[in-house]
Design a protein that fits this description.
mainly alpha; elongated; 71 residues
């Protein structure tokens, strides 16, 4: 998915859109709706680990926990 015609060099492998970010967000939204499951994200710069350690044991029987690697 690309939003700059100058880089649209392989039409058979690329999809030209007016706004790549908006298109990817819409694609993700569509995918989540097909799954019909809730998505819970704990984000921010402070307090994620303590909250995660508190909530995950309670959610684990019902939800999948996918930890993210530190960057």
């Amino acid at each position: 998915m690309i939003d700059d015609p100058a880089f649209h060099t392989h039409p058979d492998k690329m999809m030209l859109v007016s706004d790549a970010l908006a298109a990817l967000q819409e694609l993700a939204r569509h995918h989540r709706r097909q799954l019909r499951i809730p998505v819970i994200a704990i984000t921010g710069t402070n307090g994620k680990t303590p909250r995660k350690k508190c909530y995950v044991p309670h959610w684990a029987p019902r939800f999948v926990h996918t930890p993210q690697k530190a960057t």
